């Protein structure tokens, strides 16, 4: 923390570095595709390097506190300030983002989807990058909202321009659905602002920043809105629930997800699954619950209920799918159900499990989409019925798919397990004040979901990978094993999946102080 | 007071202009009608300026005249372009803005 | 070979009762090395196996032999530590020596430790040792060494190793069988397209299984439990081109997953309510009122579901016979000797939880005993109707696993674990024998179509198979007799009360086992050869494991000779060695179980039942052989002849004839077994399949009607609505400037009117 430059400018640099890269790319003519790829990769690598620099400098003994905080005036008229900070809760998600995006760009090296134009495609990824990083470091509601929305547009274009045959429908559905949630969310944010009373903020905290009469400052809000009537708080929480819940997505707001995933280009699917969905769950943990703990208590049984419905429902949905990508998309609904169940318990264990689940799901499902994309590229179809014998035709890819399947169904020793099992564990003893019997019932249902998960994933694996190739693809020269960029992009993810599976403490040790801090400040304190 | 008469004149001019803009099919006639509308405004500006004994009205009227000159220039150029492309200045045939 | 040498070495150590190597606890502290070796081997084989001269098999062999050597060293260290702790007098005594042994090595470990924070690691064993020294006498502690894995809030999950008699026993068993299977596979799987892959997963399996048995933490056990399941999945589906094989592997994995619900929930309950993941601590708390009886009851019922799936107990046993689709050595290793006993091991490991939860000590009937008892009979009956020799052995495995669970259910801990030990050897011997048979007979396992009369053509296989069968059937003095007898006596004597119903079940299965194995022997080895190959004994690499295992099938039972009744005068260092070294004596965390001792009439009864079964079945098949058929047409004259040949004592020929061959053998073979088989394949399998099918149907229905019909329709509806409005408005966009102007003017006029009216 001695490094003053890092303390003052590190996070800002981190967030906006991709935009600088995008600006450079804008200046390069469209035809020189190679240099576009180089610039994009270099940008993400530089961003990652800044990130690593920050992580090295991060004080892990104080992982519960915000570090590298930058607090500057921004929109004085509404007391919105430019506040960014990094703590143990944001760190794993930032790391995930910094990790995935360069790999996506490497994968793009020879996988630019139709209709080409790498310049625009890669620039959109970089803009997305800024949006995602910004959302995870923002400590001001308006700032958060801006970043949250910045993410939408590039993704809309990625799906709408580079997507599959139904891309227009899917992109519009994605955009409108999320925007609808955002609208309710911003209303809640505004309500929080107008109802906040900065007089209630403890002096120690108030001294460190500049507070007006009202505030959007996430650090001050829990105290500042502690005087809100509980009925009002329920409505405000409801608005945020819609905003974040659609993004997660929670049952029954999930229908945009399968369409978006199915139509999106591989890179889009990977980013969507790996990082974008986490904005929703992150919002719950960072914003909704700490600021309105009382309302969270009242909402928790419903959230938990929707979460377990999502687990079972997503799994049943998977069983009915005939398209591989759509199946993986539906499995996201189920997996995010575990994350939301962990959050709904409002316990330290549950929320830690949720954060772990976010990272694990990001890695695993991202990886599954990578593989699905590569299969599509070779076979020109993802219809499960027509596939088969992948292990024969592309053995390495078959193995990798097998490993991801196992990780996704929660095999211990791989990352997926530590998102799933602790979430189930936490439901046995939810936070004080919640209905214990109800949550234990949720626990059993969630455990049942693991069987269904194994069912659909193994079924998928058996159909696509085992057996012998069907006649139409038997001698297809287009079908070959892993290529160079695929190898480079995938191996780090696979290593990460194993690493976190064996040493879950790597993430939990960082998140635990931050989450216990958030909970102690709101629920326990 | 004299103001009413001025305003009446301006209103009549304006109505003629509007009628011309909406009803005439010849593009040149439409442009001329626009001029009428602008001049109706000018009359109003000058009249109110005189009434309140301020110079804003006159200043704005002069502005409008200058802008109107430019507008006529651009407008006629457009009409010529349309004529060259369509061999006609009939506005009913010009529906390029239809989405 | 090394394996045999080591097994002799093992014998030596056991017989002499004293340490062969100089006493040192180093391995007891560093037992994590043992699972690590095959794990490294797995990685090496995956990465470099294809390029190695022997395609990776040599890496696997080296690693497994290293594991075996280390396992035996661990065993000797454990035994010497245990002996130092207990003086040779009858009573158990204090463990003053222990903290020297452990302490010395602890320092050594701490000094040479470079892995991770050595600070708190050895603390537990030190503390425990100190406690024990000051507390009750005669307690010999497991050596625990652990470190924090991860922690959240107040909950800390540890990871580490725990060595006690049970661990050591499993290490040796797994190491030994795995080594022999590695060796056997060299020839058996030779030339397979995925030879390298096969060895890689044998290594991974061995690693996971060893990790499982050395685990000190419940969560770590769960991890290893799932990993062995994964290896089982991969190896059953080894020939994945055939859909039948992948179906079998999926069935295995999914059935296990169903049981895993119980495991997840049970482990959750234990860890959350007791606040620790440490096995020893959980045991201690469970035994000493750390939580309510209800919690333990629920937890143990949940865990029983897991046991049922992994160890093939009713009603989740159906996957195990199907799992025979895998290569035969895999069946021997995974689906007979080691992985399937993971459930039994779980019970043995968490015995205090079950003891308290199911009230084993005080009841005369409980879930575990009944589940085990029912399974054993059900599966034993099923073994009669199989044509496939591997399926017979598979049902036999299910039956024997039921036996072990039953033993644990009546409180006969040592008997159950001892049966696990002996069963591993003779069942592996039988499976590898079946492998050798199929290797010789067209790669078929069909006893009726492809075998028969192999006694002369494959003498070595025949004799090893006979020894394995004898051990399984409980023929004295082979291994199975001793463990089975101990088990029956345990059921009879019970704890506070006897378990008479369970005892009767045990007697029935003693009869059935002998009968169905006799049937196999007759069908395979006697009569005329029915196949079209030229069967011959297997080559040395395959014969050697058979010989070693059959030798073990003979001698394994002597490790736990009884010390009461007719055996009262046996020297202390020979009798009850297994009990002495394996059964925990740390009564803080293990219930005080009553030992039944040797009950002569039970031994005679079980011998009698076994011989009777062998005899009646032999009579039946002797006739078949004479007729040159595999099944006897049930004529009356033949029954009379059968009687005349065999049953001179019996007065009512017809009745007894009918009873033995018609009702007992025929009824068992016909109605009961068929009904069980029907129930098995229609009801149980039907439920499993039906559940899968209806889940898909439900999924499809939900997707079609609710997801697409309702939820999605609402979303789409809002889209359609807005686009409809758009269509309406589109009409006014004509592109005509004048029309726009008119609209503009109209709008202005309206606004002006409004303005005037309002203002």
Report on this structure:
The complex is a heterotrimer of chains A (about 525), B (about 100) and C (about 750). Chain A has about 525 residues and is mainly α. Chain A is built from 21 helices and 2 strands. Chain A has helices at about 5-25, 35-55, 90-105, 120-135, 140-150, 150-160, 165-195, 205, 220-225, 230-245, 255-265, 265-290, 295-320, 325-345, 350-380, 390-395, 395-410, 415-430, 435-465, 485-500, 505-525; strands spanning about 65-75, 80-85. The radius of gyration of chain A is 22 Å and the shape is globular. The longest helix of chain B has about 30 residues, at about 55-85. Chain B has helices at about 5-25, 25-50, 55-85. Chain B starts with a helix and ends in a 13-residue tail after the last helix. With about 750 residues, chain C is an all-alpha fold. Helices cover about 70% and strands about 5% of the residues of chain C. Chain C has helices at about 1-15, 25-30, 35-50, 55-85, 95-110, 125-135, 165-190, 195-215, 220-235, 245-275, 280-285, 295-310, 320, 330-335, 340-350, 350-355, 365-380, 390-410, 415-440, 445-450, 455, 460-475, 480-495, 500-525, 540-555, 575-580, 600-625, 635-645, 655-730, 735-759; strands at about 145-150, 155-165. Chain C has a two-stranded antiparallel sheet with strand order 1-2. In chain C, strand 1 (about 145-150) and strand 2 (about 155-165) form a beta hairpin. Classes of the chains: A mainly alpha (about 525), B mainly alpha (about 100), C mainly alpha (about 750). The interface between A and C is large, with 56 and 47 residues.
């Amino acid at each position: 923390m001695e490094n003053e430059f890092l303390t003052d400018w590190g996070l800002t640099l981190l967030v906006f570095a991709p935009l600088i890269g995008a600006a450079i790319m804008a200046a390069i003519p469209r035809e020189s595709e190679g240099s576009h790829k180089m610039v994009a990769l270099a940008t993400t690598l530089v961003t990652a390097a800044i990130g690593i620099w920050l992580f090295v400098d991060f004080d892990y003994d104080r992982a519960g506190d915000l570090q590298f905080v930058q607090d500057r005036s921004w929109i004085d008229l509404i007391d919105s300030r430019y506040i960014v900070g990094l703590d143990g809760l944001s760190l794993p998600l930032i790391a995930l983002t910094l990790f995935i995006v360069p790999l996506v760009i490497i994968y793009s090296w020879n996988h630019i989807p139709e209709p080409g134009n790498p310049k625009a495609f890669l620039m959109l990824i970089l803009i997305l990058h800024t949006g995602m990083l910004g959302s995870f470091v923002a400590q001001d509601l308006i700032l958060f909202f801006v970043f949250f929305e910045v993410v939408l547009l590039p993704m809309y274009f990625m799906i709408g321009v580079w997507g599959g045959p139904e891309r227009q429908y899917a992109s519009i559905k994605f955009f409108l659905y999320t925007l609808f949630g955002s609208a309710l969310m911003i209303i809640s944010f505004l309500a929080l602002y107008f109802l906040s009373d900065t007089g209630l903020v403890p002096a120690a905290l108030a001294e460190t920043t500049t507070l007006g009469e009202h505030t959007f400052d996430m650090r001050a809000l829990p105290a500042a809105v502690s005087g809100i009537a509980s009925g009002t708080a329920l409505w405000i929480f409801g608005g945020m629930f819609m905003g974040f819940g659609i993004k997660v997505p929670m049952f029954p707001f999930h229908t945009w997800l399968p369409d978006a995933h199915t139509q999106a280009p591989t890179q889009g699917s990977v980013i969507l699954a790996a990082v974008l969905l986490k904005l929703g769950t992150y919002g719950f943990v960072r914003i909704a619950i700490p600021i309105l703990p009382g309302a969270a208590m009242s909402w928790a049984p419903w959230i938990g209920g929707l979460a377990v419905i999502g687990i079972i429902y997503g799994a049943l949905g998977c069983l009915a799918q005939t398209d591989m990508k759509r199946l993986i998309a539906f499995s996201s609904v189920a997996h995010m159900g575990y994350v939301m169940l962990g959050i709904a318990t409002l316990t330290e264990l549950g929320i830690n499990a949720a954060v772990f689940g976010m990272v694990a799901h990001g890695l695993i499902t991202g990886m599954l989409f990578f593989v699905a994309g590569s299969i599509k590229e070779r076979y020109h179809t993802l219809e499960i019925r027509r596939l088969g014998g992948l292990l024969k035709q592309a053995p390495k890819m078959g193995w990798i798919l097998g490993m991801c399947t196992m990780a996704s169904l929660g095999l211990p020793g791989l990352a997926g397990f530590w998102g799933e099992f602790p979430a189930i564990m936490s439901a046995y003893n939810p936070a004080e004040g919640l209905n214990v019997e109800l949550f234990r019932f949720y626990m059993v249902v969630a455990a049942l979901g693991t069987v269904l998960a194994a069912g659909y994933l193994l079924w998928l694996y058996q159909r696509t990978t085992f057996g012998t190739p069907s006649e139409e693809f038997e001698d297809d020269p287009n079908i070959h094993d892993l290529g160079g960029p695929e190898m480079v992009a995938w191996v780090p993810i696979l290593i990460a999946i194993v690493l976190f599976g064996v040493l879950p403490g790597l993430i939990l040790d960082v998140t635990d102080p931050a989450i216990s801090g958030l909970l102690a400040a709101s629920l326990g304190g | 007071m004299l103001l009413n008469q001025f305003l009446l004149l301006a209103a009549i001019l304006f109505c003629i202009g509007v009628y011309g803009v909406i009803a005439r099919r010849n593009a040149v006639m439409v442009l001329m009608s626009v001029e009428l509308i602008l001049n109706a405004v000018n009359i109003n500006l000058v009249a109110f300026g005189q009434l309140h004994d301020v110079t804003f009205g006159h200043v704005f009227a002069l502005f409008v005249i200058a802008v109107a000159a430019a507008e006529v220039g651009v407008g006629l150029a457009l009409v010529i372009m349309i004529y060259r492309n369509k061999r006609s200045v009939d506005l009913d045939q010009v529906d390029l803005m239809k989405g | 070979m090394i394996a045999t040498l080591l097994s002799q070495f093992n014998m030596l150590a056991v017989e002499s009762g004293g340490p062969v190597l100089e006493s040192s606890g180093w391995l007891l502290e560093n037992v994590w090395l043992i699972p690590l070796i095959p794990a490294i081997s797995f990685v090496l084989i995956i990465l470099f196996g294809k390029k190695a001269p022997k395609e990776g098999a040599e890496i696997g062999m080296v690693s497994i032999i290293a594991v075996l050597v280390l396992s035996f060293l661990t065993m000797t260290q454990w035994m010497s530590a245990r002996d130092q702790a207990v003086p040779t007098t009858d009573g158990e005594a204090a463990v003053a020596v222990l903290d020297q042994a452990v302490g010395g090595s602890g320092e050594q470990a701490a000094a040479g430790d470079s892995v991770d924070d050595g600070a708190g690691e050895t603390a537990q064993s030190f503390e425990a040792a100190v406690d024990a020294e000051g507390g009750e006498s005669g307690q010999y502690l497991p050596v625990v060494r652990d470190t924090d894995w991860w922690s959240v809030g107040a909950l800390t999950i540890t990871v580490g190793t725990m060595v006690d008699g049970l661990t050591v026993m499993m290490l040796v068993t797994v190491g030994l069988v795995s080594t022999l299977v590695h060796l056997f596979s060299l020839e058996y799987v030779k030339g397979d397209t995925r030879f390298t892959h096969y060895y890689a997963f044998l290594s991974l399996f061995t690693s996971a299984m060893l990790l499982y048995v050395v685990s000190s933490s419940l969560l770590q056990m769960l991890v290893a439990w799932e990993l062995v399941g994964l290896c089982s999945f991969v190896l059953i589906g080894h020939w994945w081109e055939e859909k039948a094989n992948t179906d079998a592997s999926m069935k295995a994995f999914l059935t296990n997953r169903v049981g895993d619900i119980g495991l997840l929930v049970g482990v959750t309950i234990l860890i959350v309510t007791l606040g620790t993941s440490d096995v020893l601590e959980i045991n201690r708390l469970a035994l000493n009122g750390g939580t309510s009886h209800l919690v333990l009851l629920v937890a143990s019922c949940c865990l029983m579901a897991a046991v049922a799936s992994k160890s093939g107990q009713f009603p989740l046993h159906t996957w195990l016979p199907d799992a025979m689709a895998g290569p035969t050595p895999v069946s021997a290793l995974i689906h007979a000797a080691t992985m399937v006993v993971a459930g039994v091991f779980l019970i043995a490991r968490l015995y205090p939880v079950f003891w308290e939860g199911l009230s084993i000590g005080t009841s005369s009937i409980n879930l575990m005993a009944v589940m085990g008892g029912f399974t054993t009979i059900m599966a034993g009956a099923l073994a009669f109707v199989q044509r496939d020799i591997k399926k017979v052995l598979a049902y036999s495995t299910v039956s024997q696993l039921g036996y072990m669970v039953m033993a644990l259910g009546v409180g006969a801990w040592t008997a159950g674990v001892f049966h696990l030990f002996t069963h591993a050897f003779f069942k592996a011997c039988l499976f590898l024998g079946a492998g050798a048979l199929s290797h010789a007979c067209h790669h078929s396992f069909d006893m009726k179509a492809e075998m028969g009369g192999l006694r002369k053509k494959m003498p070595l296989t025949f004799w090893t198979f006979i020894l394995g069968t004898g051990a399984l059937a409980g023929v004295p003095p082979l291994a199975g007799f001793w463990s089975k007898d101990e088990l029956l006596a345990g059921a009879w004597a019970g704890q506070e009360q006897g378990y008479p119903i369970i005892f009767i079940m045990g007697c029935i299965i003693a009869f059935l086992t002998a009968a169905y194995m006799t049937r196999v022997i007759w069908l395979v080895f006697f009569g005329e050869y029915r196949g079209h190959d030229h069967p011959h004994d297997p080559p040395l690499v395959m014969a050697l494991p058979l010989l070693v295992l059959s030798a073990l099938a003979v001698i394994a039972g002597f490790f736990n000779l009884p010390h009461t009744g007719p055996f009262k005068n046996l020297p202390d260092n020979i009798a009850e060695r297994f009990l002495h070294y394996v059964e925990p004596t740390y009564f803080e965390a293990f219930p005080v179980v009553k030992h039944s001792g040797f009950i002569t009439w039970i031994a005679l009864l079980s011998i009698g039942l076994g011989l009777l079964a062998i005899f009646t079945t032999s009579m039946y098949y002797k006739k078949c052989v004479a007729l040159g058929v595999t099944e006897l047409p049930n004529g009356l004259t033949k029954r009379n002849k059968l009687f005349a040949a065999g049953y001179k004592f019996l007065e009512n020929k017809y009745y007894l004839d009918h009873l033995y061959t018609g009702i007992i053998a025929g009824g068992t073979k016909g109605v009961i077994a068929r009904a069980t088989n029907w129930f098995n394949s229609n009801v149980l399998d039907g439920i499993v399949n039906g559940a899968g099918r209806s889940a898909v149907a439900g999924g499809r229905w939900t997707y079609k009607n609710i997801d697409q019909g309702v939820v999605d329709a609402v979303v789409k509806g809002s889209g359609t609505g807005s686009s409809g409005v758009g269509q309406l408005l589109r009409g006014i966009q004509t592109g005509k400037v004048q029309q726009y102007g008119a609209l503009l003017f109209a709008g202005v006029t309206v606004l002006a009117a409004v303005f005037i009216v309002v203002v």
